[in-house]
Amino acid sequence: MDRVLMDVRYAFRSLMKRPTTTAAIVATLALGIGANAAVFGVVDAMLLRPFTMADADRIVMPMTTSPRWSGHRETVSPADFLDWRRQWTGGAVEHLAATEWWDANLVGHDEPERVLGFHVSPDFFAALGGRAALGRTFLAEEEVAANAKRVVLSDGLWRRRFGADPAVVGQSVLIDGVQWTVVGVMPPTFTFPQLAEIWAPLSFDEKTARNRTGHYLTVFGRLANGRTLDDARAQLTTVAQRLAADHPDTNAQLGAEVMTLSRGMADVGVPSVLGLWQAAGLFVLLIACANIANLLLARAAERDREIAIRLALGSSRGRIVRESLIESAILVAGSIPLALAIASASLRLMHVMMPARIVRYIAGWDRLGLDAWTIAGTIACAAVAALIFGALPAMHMARGIVADALKSDGRTGAGPGRQRVRRALVVSEIALALPLLVAAMLSISTIRSYLITWQGYDPSNVLTLRAVLPESRYPDEDSRERFAQLAVEQLSAIAGVREASAGNVIPAVDTNSTRPIEIAGKPIAEVSKWPRVDYRVISPRYFGVLRLPLMSGRAFTTADRKGAEPVAIVSESLARKYWPSASPLGERVRIADGAWMRIVGICGDVVHDWFDGRVATLYRPLPQAPTDTLIFAVRTSGDPMAVVADARRALAHVDATQPVFEIMSLRQVLSERTISLQYIAAVMAAFAGLALLLSVLGLYAVMTYLVTQRVREIGVRIALGATGRDIARLTLTQAARLTAVGLAIGLLLAIALGRGMEAGLLGIVSTDLRVTAGLAIALGVTALAASYLPARRAASIDPMTALRAE
Question: Which residues pair with 466 in a beta bridge?
Answer without folding.
Answer: 631, 661
